[in-house]
Design goal:
The protein folds into two domains: 4-103, Hypothetical protein ph0010, domain 1 (Glycoprotein, Type 4 Pilin), CATH 3.30.700.20; 107-180, Hypothetical protein ph0010, domain 2 (Dna Ligase, domain 1, 2-Layer Sandwich), CATH 3.30.1490. By secondary structure, it is of the alpha+beta class. Strands 1, 2, 3, 4, 5, 6 and 7 form a seven-stranded antiparallel sheet that branches. A hairpin with a 2-residue loop joins strand 1 (43-50) and strand 2 (53-60). It has helices at 4-24, 67-80, 117-120, 143-147, 151-161, and strands at 43-50, 53-60, 96-103, 107-108, 126-132, 135-139, 175-184.
Length: 185
């Protein structure tokens, strides 16, 4: 997908976006030295951890803007708009660990029977999106190995993230998508 060097560049852009927003209350401009590769439209998530605990995570699962623009947007959103956490305070910034995950296009997993999902999803490689009606939940590829989830548990937890019952993935009206992610820290 993208080079390690450009992935690290995105991590610096995320850090700068949050620092700029903390100082000025404004979104920074796209850096003039932005590599061409980062102008491609790709999905991206920014995860903030504080002392190895989640402090914010927001992203665009599908490509809606250039990767560089999206990274700036979701970095600020992870720090200030994640409904699970209060807005980031200046004194917390130094304790943050930054993670940028660049996503592939989500792909619908087509199966004849829901049990086949167990063979179509690889822990550590795939992230999941589960959608049933208007309910939609997403878990990044790193979530399953970080929590020791089996494929079935990963499906269950993605359903719960969508606000639907854990076994909803067994319902044929439920769509399951997988995607991969490149993680930069």
């Amino acid at each position: 997908m993208i080079s390690e060097e450009n992935g690290q560049y995105l991590v610096e852009v995320a850090k700068n976006a949050i620092a700029t927003y903390l100082e000025t209350g404004r979104r920074p401009f796209i850096p003039e030295d932005c590599p061409e590769e980062l102008k491609e439209e790709l999905g991206v998530f920014v995860t903030l951890n504080k002392k190895h605990r989640l402090r914010g995570c927001i992203g665009y699962p599908e490509p809606v803007k250039s990767l560089i623009e999206s990274t700036i947007d979701v970095a600020i959103a992870a720090a200030f708009d994640d409904p699970r956490f209060p807005e980031l305070k200046k004194e917390e910034y130094g304790d943050l660990e930054f993670e940028v995950t660049v996503l592939t296009q989500p792909e619908l997993i087509e199966i004849a029977h829901p049990n086949q999902y167990l063979n179509e999803i690889e822990i550590g490689r795939d992230g999941l999106i589960i959608q049933k009606g208007y309910a939609r939940g997403l878990l990044l590829p790193q979530v399953a190995p970080e929590n020791g989830f089996s494929v079935e548990e990963f499906l269950d937890h993605t359903c719960m993230k969508a606000g639907i019952s854990a076994d909803s993935w067994m319902d044929e009206s439920c769509d399951v998508y997988k995607f991969q992610g490149q993680i930069f820290k």
